[in-house]
Amino acid sequence: MSSKRRLSWAVIVLLLIFSGVLSILTGPGGFSYRILNQVLLFRLPRVLVGVVAGGVLAVVGGAFQGLLRNPLVDPWTLGVASGAALGAAFAIVTGTGSSVLLPVFAFSGAVLAIALVYVLARGRGGLTVIRLVLAGVIVSFFFSSLVMLVMVISHRSLGEAVYLMMGSLTVVFTRKSLGLFVISAILALAGCGWLMVHNRELDVISLSEETALSLGVDVQRLTRMVFLVGSVAVGLIIAWTGAISFVGLVVPHLVRMLFGPKHSQVLPGSFLLGAGVLLFADVLVRTLTPTGLPLSVVTALVGVPFFIYLLRTRV
Amino acid sequence: MRYSGCALWLIMLMVVNCGVHKERQIPEKRVKCVSLVPSVTEIIFAIGAEDMLVGTTNQCDFPPAAKEKTKVGDFQSPDIERIVSLKPDVVFATQPIHQRLIERLAEFKVQVYVSNPADVEGVFAEIESVGVILRRTKEAEKLVAALRRRLDSLPTFSYKPKVYVEISMAPLMSVGQGVFINDIISRAGGQNIFQHLNIPYPVVDPEAVVQENPDVILLLHPLANKDELKKRVGWSNINAVLSGRIYTGLDEDLFFRPGPRVVDGVILLARILHPERFR
Amino acid sequence: MKALTAEGLSFGYGNELIFDGFSLAIESGEFLGIIGPNGSGKSTLLRLLNGTLRPLRGVVNVLGKEINRLSRKEIAQTIALVPQESFFAFEWTVQEVVLMGRNPYLKLLERPRQEDLNKVAETMKLTGVQMLATKSINSISAGEKQRVLLARALAQEPQILLLDEATSHLDLAHQVALLQILKILNEQGKTIVLVSHDLNEAALCSRLLLLAQGKTIACDIPAKVLTPDLIRAAYGLEPVVTKHPCTGKPQVLFPPI
């Protein structure tokens, strides 16, 4: 590995550690050993959520970009976020939510959206990437307008809309829901593991459908599995955090700029960088605006300048 | 902000583009009005002027008779054509939600009264203003006097328990400065732990709630669940949780609608905060 | 054993059939050229032969086995396709592109082994792109790209090589160089199927298939196929056909314009 690469890996890992520590030190009342108990109960779970969310979103974003052969893709392109939003809206409006049921409803909504996209995209001749994207766009629009409808009918357009659209790492856990989150996280991480194991096939399929076929890749099966595994992993996470934008789109790009397009490096690199970036953005949100600027705004503010810098120096 | 009767007329004239058009002189006894604000609808009924009310929104649901009135759409987005077709002499609206509508109504030369009371005193002033517009000044004054009496009947509270108001669980949202409910809480003898935050509906850190250690918790959202809250990680040592003083199922309109029922809200909250004074 | 056979193939997009009951037999070690006007189905035929397109009816056999019974990896180890051009959405290096040709031999979690790297170096040397190894695939010329794609195809160690108008973006020198490589490979025993729009290039093949509208107009040695009558039947105009002064192979010249 060249020294430039080693340095890049080191920077990414350091950023993650730095952001994690910063996240633990940040909170009302700062940090002192007196409140260590409080810190562990509130800030440690937040770090866990941040690492898993940032990592999973970035990995799936990277995998989808390879699958769809397009660097402008993010995990939301294929419809999963709108499904989670609808599920959560339904739970909130019918009052059947709770710390456990709300994410369950959101995840169910996500699964519904995924299933709908899959069914719509399967035409004669099988699943193609173009059909996936079109189906994803259609389902996103449809579910988003349903969410608006639900919000208008129920006259609740306050906090829930922020959560559904823009995301937050601050999840209020009960013991039960924390356990459920850990299970979701493990499943989502397993999904990321699956994607990483298939890194070479993702490389090949990112060339073209035809080339991948003639190089021995079962394109139909891989397309279907990457879509399903990636979308479900994202659904498991955003059921808790809401849709955090930008991380899944930009982070894999940054990693490709540092390491090249091979998924054997892009996927793990995206996980670490995504986790670090998200935790850092969350710290910024909590220190600069104690009254809740949406996380997605800050992820954009953090990601874009860095992106511009890389674009100008390395391209 | 306080409106006195005369100042109100001046403001109305300023809001409308060029004063009162000759054909639209307000007739002697009956003033046709449309109310786009549920709290103003309540005021109109409370001062006995409901026969002048020709249009309301879908959200105007109190008193029950208000539901029978002709609807002009949603509170958030009323239908301007329907409003104008009812030929009202005055339209009651609020800012900032109805800002654009107010400007368009001015083009139609419809008079608009902008409702925006910031606290309980402001509500009283508004009742009086509405009374003046609808020629029910006597009834308005009587109503305000009665409400004041009920308020004054409350004892003074020297000890003010800390109150945490939760209006959303995901994300965790409370109420900050500039929200009506703060005045209700303080008149009921309590203090909102997030009153110092300078936006009306801040997203708050659960750690901050635990640090402030409220004595009473009000859950004002559909996902409210008292047992769930007690089980929240890290919340078990909050005073309110230890003492079980967590309240759900309250009528939110009593706290968020700046109408005559605010006094009911204050008294209800006072009973919750100081049960020992109401034996 | 025949390298590739197509029996009774029917295929079309939408409602129209391009091929209806088409059959073809390609011998092992053959150098077959496929020519014909635009829309005659040449590219489609290649893709039916390597299994990337499935016919509506009919059977394709590879080395005696039905192509449907083989896994994609097995097919990829036997047949390689060099496409006309390729779009790369990401900035792969030339070496990374050629290395993907080893995919059919690598198991899921396996990393490329020394033998894979050796093979890649070998094919890159053969097609003359070894100096471009670390360059981005999007930064090289069309001719160099074509040779990289050929190197990738050869890295699959195929017995059958299909080329889809592989020289259409190449200048004269590169075109000749590519044809020389193909000749060497054919002499080493590889079966080569070359789809070409250049009739004179096709004249180098051992056999020519003249296609028009999905039907075989002729399938014989170049001298018997590159005749004014047959070309008129397929292309609708009559060129002048002479012999190459050095090799004696038929050469097709423009009719007077």
Radius of gyration of chain C: 19 Å
Give me the count of strands of chain C.
12
Largest interface: A-B, 41 and 34 residues
Strand residues, percent of chain B:
5-15%
CATH class of the largest domain in chain B: Alpha Beta
Q: How would you state the average pLDDT of chain B, rounded?
A: 85
Distance between the termini of chain C: 46 Å
Helical coverage of chain C, percent range: 25-40%
Ends apart, CA distance between termini of chain B: 36 Å
Tell me the major beta sheet of chain B: 4 strands, parallel
CATH topology of the largest domain in chain B: Rossmann fold
The global form of chain C is globular
Outline the structure in words.
- Chain A has 315 residues and is mainly α.
- In chain A, 77% of the residues lie in helices and 1% in strands.
- Chain A is built from 13 helices and 2 strands; from the N terminus they run ααααββααααααααα.
- Chain A has a two-stranded antiparallel ribbon with strand order 1-2.
- In chain A, helix 7 packs antiparallel against helix 12.
- Chain A is globular.
- By secondary structure, chain B is of the alpha/beta class.
- Chain B folds into 2 domains: 147 residues, Nitrogenase molybdenum iron protein domain (Rossmann fold), CATH 3.40.50.1980; 117 residues, Nitrogenase molybdenum iron protein domain (Rossmann fold, 3-Layer(aba) Sandwich).
- In chain B, 38% of the residues lie in helices and 10% in strands.
- The longest helix of chain B is centred in the middle third of the chain and has 16 residues.
- Chain B is globular and about 60 Å long.
- Chain C has 9 helices and 12 strands.
- The longest helix of chain C is centred in the last third of the chain and has 16 residues.
- In chain C, strand 11 and strand 12 form a beta hairpin.
- Chain C has 257 residues and is of the alpha/beta class.
- The model of chain C has no long low-confidence stretch (mean pLDDT 91).
- The chains are: A mainly alpha (315), B alpha/beta (279), C alpha/beta (257).
